[in-house]
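Narrative summary of target 7.
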Amino acid sequence: MLKTHRRRQKIVLLRTVSLAAILGMGVISPALAQETQAPTAQPAPQSSTNTTPTTANRQSEPVAPEDILKDITVTGRRSRSLAGGNMIAQREPETTSSVDAHAINQRMALAGPLQIIASVPGVATGQSDPYGLAQRSFIYLRGLPATELGWIVEGVPAVDQAFFLPYSETFVDPENLAGITVIPGSSRITDPVQNGLGGEIVLTARNPADEFGGRVAYSHGSYDANRAFARIDTGELGASGVKAFVSGSYTSGGTFNLPGLSNRIHVDSKIEKDFAGTGKSTLFISYSDWKSVRSNTVSLAQFRADEASGDFTVGNYQPTFVPGLTTNYYKLNIYRRKNILLSWDNEVDINDRLSVHVVPYYHWTRSNSPGQTSINPNSLFNGVNPVQINTAGFLVVNGTIPAMSNSYQNEFDAGVNAYAKYDVTNSNQLLIGYWHDYWHLTAQNNLTPVDAFGNSPNVWAQDPLYSTTGAVIAGLNYKMHTNVDVISIGDQQKLLDDKLTIDIGVRYFRESLSGINLAPGPQANFAATFHRFLPRATISYDVTPNMQVYGNVITSERPPVPINIYPNTYSVATGKIAQLAAVNTPPETAVGEELGYRFHNNIVTADIAVFNKSIKNRQITASAILNGAGVSTTLIAGDETVRGVSAELALAPIFGFSPYVNGQYLDAKTKQNFFNGVDYLPTDGKVVPASPKYTATLGLNYVNGKFFGNVLYRYTSSQFSTLMNDQKMPSYGIIDLGIGYNLPSFMGKDSSIRLNMTNIANKPYLGVLSAATPNAVATKGINGTTFAAATPLYTLSSPRSILVTLALGF
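Modeled conformation, tokenized:
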């Protein structure tokens, strides 16, 4: 009877998986696979494996970081979690670092993913506010920016494919995170990532609880910060194997140098069906509605002047609107974004040797990143065509019309990632995978005249300015779509009583892009296609159950950023081309190597790695202004090398204190001269911008009965901001502090009150490079042409913030 019942469950689950595939993309190729290894020590309840390693092998067995994090969250077993969750003992054959839910729950309740992983080795981040509400958020990993990093949320490729930027504030509320994993230097073989040349960041959401319960929390703090959060867990519904949670939050907060409040509404939901040992199916949905009152980027000269005067509002967006005088009103620069992310994760064990994993997904985004401009009715163009407008009813000041210049986008991507793993023998495993992704974008830079108070009639660019012939006047107006197809094949062999593990594999990557330019001009449509084989090999050896050495050689690529490369854009004031399409731009490619050593016992955990990466055709994302709206552009920097050493160490608690330290030495160099189409800048041998030579984190976690606390010191050395190395961003070090008390049980399960402080020195600082330039000082090229100076821009990070959070569980 039991066998019959399980057989029926398998049939139901197989039908579910088949339906998932059909909904996602039609027909999927069979036999698909992943590079992650068989489950291991402290197996999570959601693991679908039918075998458990022996106790002697548990510490040395590889395991996916997501499974470790879920296991810690669900079971509470923390033998692999160290220093209050700031470090996890890893066994994968790549450099890997994770922050678990315990550490996240001690951080500031409004912290976004970038702030959470700021303590991870090699990470340099900067935000203009302390609460993850500002759109001015940047990350660099081993000197490579967010556009080079893949982001995975519950199996979904979560980056905005127009820019390859994550907008990670919209993904998952921190209370719902089991943890975040950072894989610098590479992405895993079957993860649905197309821009992971610099690494991969994986957000793992908690699973629904087995029992009914819930959690509510309220936070209040500096800059009018307020946050309310509530979650309900259904627990298992009868004996059905079904459980779920749903949560919602509202967050608002300001900045230290602007009026107005940013806010975000967010909803997470996860439903899980366990098929009694034969597999499981999980549906995850998140929704965000985000309004960001963003600060302007600053130059180094402006920062120095503000620092001397103590007034950091100078050079920022203007707080009031005066017709004819105000040129950069803050309300006309408010960023807005709506986001839906859906993942349907299906796992099934066909038999003891074969398992299949299928993840259909959908990701929709609507955004507007506007700015302020002035329209001259006597010189106005739609694309290259001169146009006329009827000015009746518009505010006209000194012959011009003040307006909001919209940078509006509506996009979605849908796809299926699937893989299978088959145990050919007890020591050999075959992995095969296939990923298909379809992405579609509609983008328009149109104009919306404002009233005498600086108000736009529509903040979503839906009330644009029309010409007298009925055409929307736009400097940017196009549609584009891509199809990505990736086949992954890998084989894993274990030798020497499973102490030695060798993985070899290859990814075949193909992308086709096409679009139509709706703005009148010489470009009617555009297209590009490229494909590449990307081989890889990893090896690890367990010297003892506590000691491991590993190495890898991994090739990778990143396509050009679509919005920066393929369409022509135009000035509405002159009709001239603002961005000339470069459809023949090749993708970036790289070969990376790592050698690492790990040690883990009951007293100390250490992880050290040396790395080297050679990159060809490096493309650096910079910023530009198109008709008053901020847009991104690309500098083709050429070849470069990235080398260095990273280390991470944590100790077991000593009288309640758990120390943690990490650091990185980075040597990133440009390997050829920069060409602007006319002449060459002598950049060969220069340090790559945004590549601090030293980064370090010192942390201390404390637990004593119901009291807990933590302190983190982060240091980032100075870094160049131009290809010519003629301007530097200063070094900085900041201290964050948290203290809390676990409330008595009669006040609820896992209830607490905590106080968090960021940047306790209370000094604004340049947190990160926002936009690199070729040269900050006028420079003669190799052939005698003068390269005009171009000013790098930075994100100004906030002084001290204080937040108090009360959380109650039931």
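Residues 1-61 have pLDDT under 50 and may be disordered.
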